[in-house]
Amino acid sequence: MELKTNMKKNIFSIIIIFTILSKCLYSQNSVSGNLTLEKAISLTLKNQPLIESAEDNLKAAEAKVNEQKSFDYPNVEANLSYNRLGPVSSIQFGGEGFLLYPANNYNADVSANYTLYDFGKKSALLDLTKSFKITSTENINFVKNQLSYKTVHLFYSILYLEKSLKVKNDEIKTLEQHLDITQKRVNSGTATDFDVLTVKVRVASAENERTDIQNAINKEKIALRNLLGLPSDQEINLSGKLNLITQTTNSDSLLAQAFVQREEMKIAKDENNSLELQKHVASLGDLPKLNIMGDYGIKNGFMPNLNALRGNWVLGVSANIPIFNGFRKDAQVQEAEANLDANSAHISALKRKIKTEVDQSISQLKTSRAQLNTAELQVEQAKQAVQRAKISYENGVITNLDLLDAETSLAKAELLNLRVIYQNVANTYDLKEEIGDVIR
Fold first, then answer.
1. Do residues 362 and 251 make contact, with C-beta atoms less than 8 angstroms apart?
2. How far, in Å, CA of 149 to CA of 432, rounded?
3. What pLDDT score does 115 carry?
């Protein structure tokens, strides 16, 4: 009875542990509560396979460095062999036959080889593999930056669309109220069916626009879930504001920052360093190497008892001196120099590209900033127009359709103002990305 009770307790404990672990694993790819921009970026950097791929490339580069370091140590090998020889040669001496070697040959030995001096070849190759590791590290930062800024743009795009949807919902609510008023006026004989039809057309048009906005939100959320590694049925509720961001637009200082901070420039410069090292390695290709070797083992075949296993050893020094290799070294040096020239041209082209992107982003940001005052003024003027229209409507000077025109103009002005604010935020982040600012 006690055994059954203990078994039940153990099973119950296992179920609880399994449930907790399942929840923990699920929570790694889910969002609880509102999703802030910081949390979104954190999830992207945590769950993106592109980052895992870049990090695996770094691990491979680190392994390559360790592989190159292994040449600083002796190469030690153990060898075991058995050979059956036949026919076995023999000689006659004093009426007896003597075998020159045994038919069964056994050998076991341990050998060691070490390069004493190679004119810096090992050191040069190690520096080259380390340069590849640096490039892999920069590539991780490049991928992270791209994904972070993509997350930012999706996040603010959804915020903008959701705020636009709210404005559109308010507009439709106002239209429906006017439709009700117009219908009552038709019933009382102070309006015509044409007035009702006019309002219904506006309601239908606004509902179509709302459907388009909702569809855009759904598409952006699908993209954001995929970027964050969330399940397709995960509900996303964003927490944030479309606040304007301070950003200088001085072209000279921003361009100087871009040339220093952009990961593409860092990777190109790392590539240039690697090519310089490759050229150095190639220039050492026809230099000699000085090696030492040692071997100790046991084998048979020694006089006078050919079948007895005896210890044996050998020590030696060797020099490998290349004499002619078909001009391979010269070709390798020329290849490295050509690659250096190509990379220098690539860096020049990259600088032009960066300058174009920075200048375009500055122009876009200045334009959207210039539109801010106009958009805000339009909203303020539209609000004043609505207030005046309401007073005129209450005094019977205008119809409810005239008031509706003023309210519709206000909704359009608010949507335009929202878009200009969003463009300012988006353009600011575009400029930050072009100059290589890091966001995490």
1. yes
2. 9
3. 93
What are the residue boundaries of the structural domains of the chain, listed by start? Answer: 43-72+118-287+322-434, 75-117+288-321
Mean pLDDT of 196-224: 95
pLDDT of residue 63: 95
**pLDDT at position 31:** 62
- Cα(211)–Cα(426) distance, integer angstroms: 24
CB neighbour class for 398 (10 Å; exposed up to 12, middle 13-18, buried from 19): middle
> Distance between terminal CA atoms of the chain?
58
Assess whether pLDDT exceeds 50 at residue 270. yes
What does 12-33 look like in DSSP terms, one character per residue?
Answer: HHHHHHHHHHHHHHHHTT---S
Residues 6+ apart with CB under 8 A from 109: 78, 79, 295, 296, 297, 298, 299, 312
For residue 304, say if its preceding peptide bond is cis, omega within 30 degrees of 0. Answer: yes
What is the Cα–Cα distance from 131 to 155, expressed in whole angstroms? Answer: 36
CATH 2.20.200 fits 75-117+288-321, yes or no: yes
Cis peptide before 87 (omega within 30 of 0): yes
- The percent of residues above 90 in pLDDT, for the chain, comes to 72
The CATH code of domain 43-72+118-287+322-434 reads: 1.20.1600.10
Name the band, by pLDDT with cuts 50, 70 and 90, for residue 33.
Answer: low
pTM: 0.81
CB 98, CB 305: distance < 8 Å: no
Cα–Cα distance for residue pair 168/209, rounded to 1 Å: 8
